[in-house]
Design a protein that fits this description.
The protein is of the alpha/beta class. Helices cover 45% and strands 20% of the residues.
């Protein structure tokens, strides 16, 4: 069985994230969405909220793809999380060259820790390349419309946070 791990903070989940999830399902039999706890980032949404949002979005994706998607919170090293869930591939989304530079370093470190786990990069869809959770939160905080960037329930949750 091919098991992939797609890690991130998903604070909040965006249409860019769901695009990567949908396309990653073509590559693996099971996709584990690793929700990083990462207390240092000070997320807007609680871990429980982020997990619930992802589970709701992934339920719709699994109906279409027929694959298996699990949502798994983690607070340890990414490579340890990959081992914990039995992943043999880490899926990462790229939006721009700046993403690649950071990801290139991460791949090198992860391979030094465990060279049996591969990393696969998926380029963001051209319509989704500008979407970043940080920017979405800023737009919502300032009263802007984020409905083109996040699933409808996430837009509602953002409005409730900043409304």
């Amino acid at each position: 069985m091919r098991i992939g791990l797609y890690p991130g903070t998903f604070d909040p989940v965006t249409l860019g994230h769901t695009d990567i999830i949908r396309r990653a399902m073509v590559l693996v039999d099971r996709l584990v969405i690793g929700v990083a706890i990462n207390r240092d980032k000070g997320p807007l949404f609680s871990l429980d909220d982020r997990v619930a949002m992802l589970r709701a979005e992934c339920a719709a994706i699994t109906e279409i793809t027929g694959g298996e998607i699990l949502v798994h919170p983690f607070e340890n090293l990414l490579i340890d999380c990959a081992r914990d869930v039995g992943a043999n591939v880490i899926v990462r989304g790229l939006r721009a060259v700046a993403d690649f530079e950071y990801e290139f370093q991460m791949v090198g470190m992860n391979r030094a820790l465990d060279d049996s786990v591969e990393t696969v990069f998926l380029m963001a869809d051209a319509r989704r390349q500008a979407i970043a959770s940080k920017l979405v939160k800023e737009i919502a905080r300032l009263g802007g419309d984020v409905s083109r960037f996040v699933p409808a329930p996430v837009a509602t949750a953002l409005k409730a946070k900043y409304g």
